[in-house]
Amino acid sequence: MTTHHDLPAHPDLMVWGYLDATTPPVLTVESGDTVSVKTVPAGGGPFVNPNAGAVPPEFAKILAELPQKGTHILTGPIYVRGAEPGDTLQIDILDIRVWMEWGFVAIIPNKGTIPDDFDLTEIIHPVIDTEAATVTLPWGTKLKLDPFFGVISTAPPPHWGRLDTAVPRAFGGNMDNKELRAGTTLYLPVFTEGALFYTGDGHGVQGDGEVCITALETGLEGTFRLTVRKDLRYKMPFAETATHLISIGLDEDLDDAAKQAVREMVAHICARTNLAPSQAYMLCSLIGDLHVTQTVDGNKGVHMMMPKSAL
Question: Which terminus, N or C, of the chain has the lesser number of Cβ atoms within 10 Å?
Answer without folding.
Answer: N
